[in-house]
Design brief:
With 366 residues, the chain is α/β, with parallel strands linked by helices. Helices cover 44% and strands 17% of the residues. The chain has 14 helices and 13 strands. It has a seven-stranded mixed sheet, sandwiched between helices. Strands 4-3-5-6 form a four-stranded parallel sheet, sandwiched between helices. Helix 7 packs across helix 8. The longest helix is centred in the last third of the chain and has 21 residues. The radius of gyration is 22 Å and the shape is globular.
Length: 366
């Protein structure tokens, strides 16, 4: 008789409890970072917990109650994840919105999901305001930026910076996140994920992969996707890893961010890996002749040995190239969401970078 395996029990009961768990264990270690003025800086685990408590207090003052639906539309930034946790700390439900959606699409989701409050950054507040006028007149807005005259993030930190941790306002089986995804069939559909759904997935990942406080993620995929919010935000929070918010999708910026952030892990989709490899290859092609010949020789030898013997020696042979590019600290790439082209996969292997390919569904957290 085969033995039935069960998923490991999460270390906390509710998703927002993760930030208190991490603050207690990882303290002042860096957690959420952004690039500004030539350096990466941001929130430690303790500061993140404090910021979540403060923003939750502001949202509560603005009328957010357990069970309320709160939309979140913003570009990737450290405050996105902290606002997400603050909503959940109140026992409310997060409705993450694609940052590319226009007001008509946003209005449709706000109406269908019966959203009572929306949190947005300065770029997306006009979209939310237009959607409110058209479809959800009673919607209350809160901003992640100080401009605009709305209750905002900095105000929360000033007025509620000493707010205490909250008692649980939900149960593990309660709805935590309502995601709208079109999948491959067109019209967006709501996916309901509970605290237990998300935490069970996080715990399984934390115990399957070897990563922890010595690791640093570079976050680039949109956080409204559950692939990134789970893998690139909640999982690092669980294990004490740092997360650096990438500046953008441009190949040069991506390569620079990977180098300057000290990232050891990266979660992406095949198109991103193709762009990154194109940037790396261009750097080789533009190098002076001696360095160009040296790089091509090492990569050619790595490929030849792999093809003839099956041995993957890229980790050793290509180390000088990775070091020269400032990317030797990268130890693993994770890809998903679409098939990964075999020829691109093998180019990464020949550079000495393991690539883990995953498959998942938004409905499974993911």
């Amino acid at each position: 008789m085969s033995q039935r395996l069960s998923a490991p029990a999460p270390v906390v009961r509710l998703v927002p409890d993760l930030v208190e768990y991490a603050a207690e264990r990882y303290g002042e270690r860096p957690f959420l970072l952004r690039y500004a003025s030539g350096t990466w800086s941001g929130y430690s685990f303790v500061a993140a917990a404090r910021a979540v408590r403060a923003f939750a207090a502001l949202l509560e003052r603005e009328g957010v109650r357990p069970g309320a639906r709160v939309a979140l539309q913003s570009d990737n930034r450290p405050e996105w994840g902290l606002a997400y946790l603050a909503v959940l700390a109140l026992g409310a439900v997060v409705v993450p919105l694609d940052a590319q959606l226009k007001d008509m699409e946003v209005g449709e989701i706000l109406s269908f999901a019966e959203v009572s409050h929306a949190v947005g950054d300065l770029r997306h507040l006009p979209v939310l305001q237009a959607a409110r006028l058209a479809r959800r007149p009673g919607l209350r807005l809160v901003s992640l930026d100080a401009e605009g005259g709305l209750p905002h993030w900095d105000q929360a930190q000033r007025e509620f910076g000493a707010a205490p941790a909250r008692a649980p306002a939900a149960l593990p089986g309660d709805l935590a996140v309502l995601l709208f995804t079109s999948g491959t069939t067109g019209q967006a559909k709501g996916v309901m994920l509970s605290h237990a759904n998300l935490l069970t997935n996080v715990e399984s990942v934390a115990r399957t992969f070897e990563f922890g406080p010595c690791d640093r993620f570079l976050s680039l995929l949109p956080l409204h996707h559950t692939f990134e919010s789970t893998g690139g935000f909640l999982c690092p929070l669980r294990v004490g890893a740092s997360v650096c918010t990438a500046r953008g999708l441009a190949s040069r910026e991506l390569r620079e961010d990977l180098a300057t952030s000290g990232a050891t892990l990266f979660i992406g989709v095949p198109l991103l890996y193709e762009k990154l490899m194109t940037a790396i290859q261009k750097a080789i092609d533009d190098a002076p002749l001696p360095r160009r010949v040296f790089a091509r020789t090492l990569l050619g030898l790595s490929r030849l040995v792999r093809r003839t013997t099956g041995a993957r020696l890229g980790r050793t042979l290509a180390r000088p190239l990775r070091r020269k590019a400032g990317l030797d600290h990268l130890r693993m790439f994770v890809t998903g969401a679409a098939p990964f082209a075999p020829e691109v996969f093998w180019r990464y292997i020949d550079f000495g970078w393991p690539v883990v390919e995953g498959y998942g569904l938004t409905e499974t957290s993911p």
